[in-house]
């Protein structure tokens, strides 16, 4: 709804061009989207935010584009894209590492791999919260799986500092009319977030939802997010490891003959 994304068949980088107009229900402006990308560029990405490189006035040979891609660019990004002298000149674009969208990945892999991905999806949210980032759009399609099986968030148009969000408990309906109302019967501010509603965005089948809840059920409540906000308000720096625990180096116990000698490290796992 915000970007036109294209790539070469065997290239591990994607090109992202902002559309001239954003589709409903997007309300962000072009300037706000650029500011969010700049925020990510300056922020601690904790290995969970894909690195985006910004380019201006980038030129490609016209022959490199298939007709459907060029037609879409000319139709929906005409204020940014110009075709002249056999070249396609793009006034502004981002490049990012290509990832496999999580919703697609979960349909392609076996049960154990899907279970590990869902558990890591919850860990992405924890890691981002530890660096004072809230992704905003929780849909699985906005998270990608790297070639190493690591989950990374890549859709930044609704991203915000965690400390700017207002996490609320979903009010209980006081009548049948409120219970069945199509629209919220209570006031919702621009920065209000109701973690209890995250479950509806997951769209996970029963076994994967159970795996997620087993490891990350607290993410579906306001208390976790408020606790993280309080840690940031106090200026605490939380450790985030950009690799799995099985690959961390930890000191091993020394035998009597090694006492007083150099510290030895051992790697856990292959």
Could you please describe the fold and organization of this structure?
The structure is a single chain. With 270 residues, the protein is of the alpha+beta class. The protein has two domains: 3-97, no CATH class; 100-233, Transferase(Phosphotransferase), domain 1 (Orthogonal Bundle), CATH 1.10.510. Helices cover 30% and strands 21% of the residues. It has helices spanning 30-42, 67-76, 102-108, 111-130, 176-179, 198-202, 206-216, 222-233, and strands spanning 3-6, 13-18, 52-61, 81-84, 87-97, 100-101, 133-134, 143-145, 151-153, 160-161, 166-167, 192-193, 249-251, 265-267. Strands 1, 2, 3, 4 and 5 form a five-stranded antiparallel beta sheet that branches. The protein has a three-stranded antiparallel beta sheet with strand order 6-8-9. A two-stranded antiparallel ribbon has the order 7-10. Strand 1 and strand 2 form a beta hairpin. Helix 4 (111-130) runs parallel beside helix 7. The longest helix has 20 residues, at 111-130. The chain is globular, with a radius of gyration of 22 Å. The mean pLDDT is 88.
Give the key terms.
three-stranded antiparallel beta sheet, Transferase(Phosphotransferase), domain 1, 21% strand, 2 domains
């Amino acid at each position: 709804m915000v970007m036109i994304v294209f790539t070469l068949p065997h290239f591990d980088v994607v090109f992202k061009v902002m559309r001239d107009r954003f589709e409903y229900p997007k309300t962000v402006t072009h300037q706000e989207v650029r500011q969010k990308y700049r925020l990510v560029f300056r922020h601690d990405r904790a290995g969970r935010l894909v690195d985006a490189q910004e380019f201006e006035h980038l030129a490609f040979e016209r022959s490199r584009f298939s007709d459907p891609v060029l037609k879409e660019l000319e139709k929906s990004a005409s204020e940014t894209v110009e075709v002249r002298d056999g070249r396609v000149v793009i006034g502004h674009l981002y490049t990012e590492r290509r990832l496999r969208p999580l919703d697609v990945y979960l349909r392609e892999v076996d049960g154990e791999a899907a279970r590990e991905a869902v558990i890591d999806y919850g860990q992405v949210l924890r890691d981002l919260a530890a660096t004072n980032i809230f992704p905003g759009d929780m849909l699985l399609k906005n998270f990608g799986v790297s070639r190493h099986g690591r989950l990374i968030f890549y859709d930044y148009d609704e991203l915000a500092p965690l400390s700017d969000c207002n996490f609320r408990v979903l009010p209980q309906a006081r009548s049948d009319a409120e219970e069945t109302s199509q629209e919220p019967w209570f006031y919702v501010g621009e920065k209000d977030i109701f973690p209890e509603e995250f479950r509806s965005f997951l769209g996970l089948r029963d076994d994967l939802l159970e795996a997620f809840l087993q490891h990350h059920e607290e993410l579906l409540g306001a208390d976790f997010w408020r606790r993280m906000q309080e840690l940031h308000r106090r200026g605490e720096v939380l450790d985030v490891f950009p690799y799995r625990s099985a690959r961390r180096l930890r000191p091993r116990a020394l035998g009597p003959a090694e006492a007083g000698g150099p510290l030895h490290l051992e790697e856990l796992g292959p």
